[in-house]
Amino acid sequence: MGMRNQTQVVEFVFLGFSGLPNSHIYLFLPFLTIYLVTMLGNLMILILIQLDASLHTPMYYFLSHLSCLDISLSSVTVPKILVNFLTQQQTVSYNQCLAQMYFLISFTATEAALLAVMAFDRYAAICKPLNYSRLMNSKVCTILAFATWVWGSLNATLHTALSTRLSFCGVNQIHHIYCDLPPLMKISCSDLHLNKLAVHIASIFVGGAPFLFTILSYCFIVSSILKIRSTAGKHKAFSTCASHLIVVVLYFGNALVNYNRPSTGYSLVTDTVISTMFCIITPILNPLIYSLRNKEVNGALKKVVRSWRTSKHPLTSY
After folding, report:
1. pTM higher than 0.90 for the full model?
2. Does domain 3-313 have CATH number 1.20.1070.10?
3. What gap in Å lies between CA 293 and CA 46, rounded to an integer?
């Protein structure tokens, strides 16, 4: 039955926090704090990479894109959640919902592709050190970074275009805390054959392929590291990959649980926790992981702090 014969939905109601009806105002401060720390942490990474010439390398160039993605991903979901906490109305308009879903799908797909590109960068640095400057020159890095954003945008465009065809038969309650494809499909009364086919194809090429490529890259990386004779050399090689590997495990692990869990058998509270971990907690962890575990980032941060303490502009050190 077409949309014209259905009760048209003009807004959706989020049920993710419905189990905490009197606690919305108390949830506002923790979510606001997480959002501000996410913004500050990722902005710090971006600023340090720009200011410190020693960080002008492919690895940190891609890290700057990762920070932009984390800022964008968090900004797609958290501000709307904060507004709803204040107004105590867990609603979103139909158009806002589709827009939120588009950017959410775009940024998550872009991040998966970017993490695979960062894995290739580590592979080239460790397994092909003599050819590294040729394999990962500035032109190649720019093309790879641009391609990840285009890839994510094309994926989101496909799913959003298919979602505009969905009818909801007057049902507007989403069992989620933000607009995403699976919960929208769950309440739709349309034929979902084409949408499900697109989701399955995307899960293979947008999610599975980058993950498998990353795993394959690290198989070659580990094999090369084990051939290094000196313990110091092995430790140094592992240390350059540690932060990225932790981020990969967190991101793909959360994505797997978020998008591939059974449609039934999970409580609304569990769904809310999983969704919060994927799109709200993960973006705050990435800058913490890179700043706490990375000596070069720590060194750049200390250098900037020393410059501020001596009342000198950070750029004068370079």
Report:
1. no
2. yes
3. 17
